[in-house]
Specification:
With about 210 residues, the protein is α/β, with parallel strands linked by helices. The protein contains ten helices and eight strands. Helix 5 runs parallel beside helix 7. It binds SN-glycerol-3-phosphate.
């Protein structure tokens, strides 16, 4: 799962270009790649690529008199298949998170709920999101990966999340990072800078995917 965040390298035309690279690789290598562009880029990208496009966040509102909010309904209309929730760069209070998961389900959107540690992941597992993603905030955007720095976080997270599949992220940049995460029981990885900031994005994705084989 590649979070485009708000990087210039993955905004507007660059976002579409990156989305197409992801689609090409997903088809050729037969791997699941989910992309999370910014809201403004969702409609264009969702029309142009066949891989799943997710939003980076939604607010706990139904369509109506709200200003400056993003509803589950609006991202569904824009072509998104799901949404990230509670990313450490877009934290939510527990009640809002709970509401957003229900609203997403209502619109058949897949939810990936982020948390920073196993205890909190255990708490959000009660809300039954489709996926949980554990990302230690201090490792986000750096060169030390969660797989190397915190392997027990992954194995403990897998146990704590029970039947809910676990993704892990933060600092994931190499095939070895991916390999270790999967070996420890993660079902996938959530990452951003390793791809978005790479000078050769296609090469960076292919390197990561080689860790899945
Ligand atoms: O959502 C993915 C993210 O927070 C990890 O970022 O740059 O460490 O891959 P990065």
């Amino acid at each position: 799962m590649i979070n485009f965040k708000a990087y210039a390298e993955s905004t507007g035309k660059n976002a579409l270009e990156l989305a197409k690279i992801c689609e090409k690789i997903a088809i050729k290598e037969d791997v699941n790649i989910i992309i999370c562009p910014q809201f403004m880029d969702i409609p264009v990208i969702a029309r142009k690529v066949k891989i799943p496009v997710f939003a980076q966040h939604i607010d706990p509102i139904e369509p109506g008199a709200f200003t400056g909010h993003i509803s589950a309904f609006s991202i569904k209309e824009a072509g998104a298949k799901g949404t990230l929730l509670n990313h450490s760069e877009k934290k939510m209070i527990f009640d809002s998170l709970s509401l957003c998961i229900s609203m997403a389900k209502k619109y058949s959107l897949i939810t990936v709920c982020c948390e920073r540690d196993v205890t909190r992941a255990c708490a959000i597992a009660q809300l039954k999101p489709d996926f949980i993603a554990i990302e230690p905030p201090e490792l986000i955007g750096g060169d030390l990966s969660v797989s190397t720095a915190k392997p027990t976080l992954i194995s403990d997270g897998v146990k704590a999340c029970g039947k809910i599949p676990l993704l892990v992220g933060a600092g994931i940049k190499t095939a070895e990072d991916v390999r270790r995460a999967l070996k420890l029981g993660a079902k996938g990885v959530l990452l951003a800078s390793g791809v978005v900031k790479a000078s050769d994005k296609e090469k960076a994705i292919l390197e990561l995917i080689s860790g899945m084989k």
